[in-house]
Design a protein that fits this description.
14 strands; alpha/beta; about 325 residues; Rossmann fold; about 35% helix; Alpha-Beta Plaits; binds adenosine-5'-triphosphate
Length: about 325
């Protein structure tokens, strides 16, 4: 993986009157990375996305897309961006080819490169067979592919996808996720989603925003490490007594889950797994399940976002000033 930084966000803030929707966030995305952007409702995701795509100006801070500042060089910066909003901007009455031709022209692709650009986007998104079909007659999954094709038609450095799998069936979801992973070979991808398993299966970095602030920015590998816990779940057909389990070296505490199942809190440095397996065989406990327990991304997400449910910081004295104020 080449380590070019394709997106650089520096000290970005956006205030709506007294509401600090985004507060001093900084991060980078490198070529080849798929960044999962998570947060509860009202956390500041859409505001950040709108600023990244040049649709909203920040109150402070900078956005650099492949070396171009989105405020100082908006045309050059936007040429490096592909965006699939939550509702794909497709025209149902056009064929796939007609629509992509329209998008390619909007993106100012030179005439002699139009055909190649469209064919390549269709091929990468698995749309070649549907080129002559009306978009309105395609399934939702295929319409989503068309939305992704328009986002990559000009080969942007950065692709931003807002909840790209919402409303799709499980097969379509798998296909779109694999397409997103494939996109990361040539682009940086930012994926906004509420679906936590999607982040684990598709992204290599995860970022959580809460009340306008970045509260987590980790690689999926590091996060997987954090998810390991010090608990084992074991089950026996002929279970021993709790004391027998507690006496095994490395077992700190035993909780009985039901007649056959136990949760063991263990010392990670003195993992008792091998001893348990051997003792079970020696003493006919009939071990039939042994699984290390893991914290889920959902648990981590809940732990760092649910401490206070008021999503954004508000300066109380300024509330009246903002009444009726929007952008
Ligand atoms: P969701 O997941 O619900 O879309 P989000 O994380 O995208 O939420 P934002 O839409 O960025 O959150 O909103 C962040 C905060 O800014 C919220 O408190 C929201 O009410 C507020 N906000 C967003 N847009 C405006 C606006 N135009 N005027 C005033 N406040 C706004």
């Amino acid at each position: 993986m080449n380590n070019d930084v394709l997106i650089r966000i520096e000290h970005l803030s956006r205030h709506y009157g007294p509401i600090r929707a985004v507060e001093n966030i900084s991060f980078e995305v490198k070529r080849g990375e798929v960044l999962g952007f998570l947060g509860p409702n009202g956390a500041g995701k859409s505001t950040t996305m709108q600023i990244l795509t040049g649709n909203l100006s920040p109150s402070a801070g900078r956005v650099i897309i492949n070396g171009y500042d989105i405020l100082d060089q908006p045309r050059l910066a936007k040429a490096e961006l592909g965006y699939l909003p939550e509702t794909p901007p497709i025209y149902r009455e056009l064929t796939v080819y007609e629509y992509l031709l329209y998008c390619a022209r909007l993106n100012k692709i030179p005439k002699n490169q139009l055909r190649n650009a469209i064919n390549s986007a269709m091929e990468r998104c698995g749309l070649t067979e549907t080129r002559k079909r009306l978009i309105g007659n395609l399934s939702k999954g295929y319409q989503q592919r068309v939305g992704i094709a328009q986002a990559i038609i000009h080969s942007p450095a950065v692709v931003i996808l807002d909840e790209p799998t919402v409303g799709l069936d499980p097969i379509q979801i798998r296909e779109i996720r694999s397409l997103i992973r494939e996109l990361s070979n040539n682009h940086s991808v930012i994926l906004s989603t509420h679906i936590l398993p999607e982040v684990q299966s598709t992204c290599n970095r995860v970022q959580i925003i809460n009340k306008g602030k970045l509260v987590l920015n980790e690689s999926i590998d590091d996060l997987n490490q954090q998810m390991q816990s010090d608990n084992l779940l074991i089950a026996f057909r002929h279970p021993p007594g709790i004391q027998a389990l507690e006496s095994i070296g490395g077992v700190v505490r035993v909780n009985k889950v039901d007649n056959e199942r136990f949760e063991l809190h263990i010392e990670p440095a003195n993992d008792p797994t091998d001893k348990i397996v051997k003792m079970s065989a020696d003493q006919n406990w009939h071990l039939y399940e042994l699984s290390p327990q893991r914290r889920s991304l959902e648990e981590i997400f809940m732990a760092i976002t649910s401490s206070e449910h008021q999503h954004v910081d508000v300066e109380p004295q300024a509330l009246s000033v903002a009444a009726g104020e929007s952008n």
